[in-house]
Amino acid sequence: MRRVLLDRSVLLMRGLKGDTAAIGNVCPHRFASLSEGRFERDLVECPYHGLRFDMSGQCVHNPHGDGRITERARVASYPLVERHGALWIWLGDIMAADPARIPDLCLLETTDPTDRAPGYLLTKANYQLLSDNILDLSHADFIHPATLGTGGEIAGTKARARLEGDIVTVEWAFTGKGMAMERSLRDGAEVDSRFEVTWYPAGVMILRNDVGPVGEGEPAAKRAGVHIMTPETSRTTHYFFENADAGRRKKLALALDVFEREDGVVLEEVQRNMGDSDFWDMEPLILSSDSGAILARRVLQRLIRRERARSATASHPPQKARLSQPF
């Protein structure tokens, strides 16, 4: 399958033995898309002139003339790891690729598949805007008043954000009537609610929500979900998400609808207003609810500067940050 990742066209392949690979999708001959060609016996054939490439990106068959294969007859190959039901790709310096940096999402693997609800949306907004959206859940009171909103309860709660290494965690805890879509199930009774978002560079988040009777400590319901923002371009994002708790499959359609009609509309309008301007250059007003999102942006700034410095030290031109993300 073809994916555009950080402005690069990438071909993702699975071989006969189940192994996976990621290579450049553009044939070096006349720049046709290899993804439009045939894939047989772990080889992909260019649809234009029939050059064949293996899963390492090397051309192994030239049907023209004497069949000579030159040194330039290859496409890029990218480190790829399959873990937690996702493929994680590294588009930067190969020597810097480190699978240990892949976040631990084992909660997806320990949940009954019948209780897992995966989803995907291509959103016309920068990936950091989507991360901001999850890191500041107070927006739910205003964008989702009839479903995920809490009638001002979460917005009125001061978010507690902390930084551990490169990982940001932000938490809200309050007593109230909780999310609008669940109030009728409790006949308006108050509950203790806790929301926690953990962010891993460059855009992987785990969202946890515990709800229980007031003062009893142990929550009656524990929910968890994974949200992953993978840049397609500087202004578009592959948004992957999966809920991992009982009964949530039935709510997937609602989640997709809520994001497309509400979050997505606002975020895409924000992107149009920003254009290609840098977030900090626009001098945004900072609210207390932004604490987690601001920490995450600062971490990302630092990591990008470090990667660019390493690239310069290695004597090749600085590139955009290529942090590990699923496709």
- The average pLDDT is 90
Could you give the distance between the termini? Answer: 10 Å
The SSE string, one letter per element, is EEEEEEEEEEEHHEEEEEEHHE
Helix content: 10-25%
CATH topology of the largest domain: Naphthalene 1,2-dioxygenase Alpha Subunit, Chain A, domain 1
CATH class of the largest domain: Alpha Beta
| Unreliable segments of 5+ consecutive residues | none
Structural class: alpha+beta
EC number: 1.14.13.82
Pfam families: Rieske (PF00355), VanA_C (PF19112)
Domain Rieske: 1-89
Keywords: 2Fe-2S, Iron, Iron-sulfur, Metal-binding, Methyltransferase, Monooxygenase, Oxidoreductase, Transferase
Give the key terms:
2 domains, alpha+beta, Rieske Iron-sulfur Protein, Naphthalene 1,2-dioxygenase Alpha Subunit, Chain A, domain 1, 18 strands, seven-stranded antiparallel beta sheet, 32% strand, four-stranded antiparallel beta sheet, 327 residues, 18% helix
Q: Could you describe the 3D structure shown?
A:
The protein is an alpha+beta fold and 327 residues long. It folds into two domains: 2-78, Rieske Iron-sulfur Protein (3-layer Sandwich), CATH 2.102.10; 111-305, Naphthalene 1,2-dioxygenase Alpha Subunit, Chain A, domain 1 (Alpha-Beta Complex). 18% of the residues lie in helices and 32% in strands. It contains four helices and 18 strands. The chain has helices at residues 127-135, 140-143, 252-274, 291-313, and strands at 2-5, 8-14, 20-24, 38-40, 43-45, 52-53, 59-61, 77-78, 80-83, 86-89, 116-123, 160-164, 167-176, 191-200, 204-213, 221-233, 236-244, 325-326. The strands form four sheets. Strands 11-17-16-15-14-13-12 form a seven-stranded antiparallel beta sheet. The longest helix is centred in the C-terminal third of the chain and has 23 residues, at 252-274. The protein is elongated and about 80 Å long. The protein starts with a strand and ends with a strand.
